Amino acid sequence: MMPGRLLVAVFLAGLLLAAGVQNRYDTTVDYFANRDTFVSLPSGKTMKTLSFGYSNLAADLLFIWSIQFYSTTYLTNRFDFLERVYDTITDITPQYKEPYIIGSLIMVYEARDIPMALRLLDKGSRHNPEEWFFDHDAGYYCYKFLKDFAKAEFYYNRAAAKPEAPAFIKRLNAHMVYLRDDHKVAYQMWLEIYNNARDTLEKDVAFNHLYQIKAENDLALLKERIGIFRRQFRRWPATLSELLSSRLLAALPGDFAGNEYIYNPEQGTVSAARVFKWKRP
Q: pLDDT at residue 234 above 60?
């Protein structure tokens, strides 16, 4: 019995000694201080082979690890490996949708790298051609962060063509066309949405866009003709009807609701009853 007790005593003494050494070491190290790290991953093809048929499990484990890894804020260079990590996950299982979405969110909101996010979402769209939300997210990032309305329109148009795409994608697409100042095409797109609206909300949204586009076009024309009238007659027109009698206009335009535009004869200004400030300087 004595050798057994001696062994236990030696073990406990060793354990206490190790705890003391660890405690002393811990007091000298800040585990949460900013530091660099290094990540080395095999290619997605190699990982798939090494999973021995459990590729979905391998992708799941790597995806869960990636979320934890990119939540570790004290690893200052963690974004150096961001694209490689999510490329590897999506190479293992290209139809695994969540890594594309979560990966692009990290790329946009944490790494602030929009082109990287677009590359990942493009990959998701290629491997999941029936899904609309990859192109929708890409369009939103182009609109919100790049202010590239033409590129946003491209993605929204591609998303709208998917079989299960919701109706609001077409509205986003039409709005991008409006924001890049193609009023003629935007008006026709919104008119189609207005005429085929399936509910009150959709019809109201289309009405507001049609109202604003028509007002912008009409007011530009009216202001131009009011300016010509003033140069010719050295005064502001008393009413907009004088633009007709002076043959500067063949007909007076009205807003999309059928109402006349508001005219101030003292200042020569003309405006619409409603203004939607979607365009920012």
A: yes
User: What pLDDT does residue 279 have?
Assistant: 79
Residue 263: phi and psi, rounded to 5, are -120, 135
Query: How many Cβ atoms are within 10 Å of 146's Cβ, its own excluded?
Result: 13
Residue found under tokens 């369009």: 139
Nearest CA to 181 among 278, 108, 260? Answer: 278
Q: Which residues pair with 49 in a beta bridge?
A: none
Full-model pTM: 0.77
Residue 43, sorted as left (phi over 0), alpha (psi -120 to 50) or beta, turns out to be beta
Backbone angles phi, psi at 22, to 5 degrees: -65, -45
DSSP state for residue 145 in the 8-state scheme: I
262: three-class secondary structure by DSSP = strand
Q: Reduced to 3 states, what is the DSSP secondary structure of residue 52? A: coil
Q: Look at residue 250 and tell me whether its pLDDT is greater than 60.
A: yes
The number of angstroms, rounded, from the C-alpha of 124 to the middle of its chain's C-alpha atoms is 15
Write the CA distances from 77 to 63, 82, 111, 116, 144, integer angstroms. 19, 10, 10, 16, 26
For residue 51, name the pLDDT band (cuts at 50, 70, 90). confident
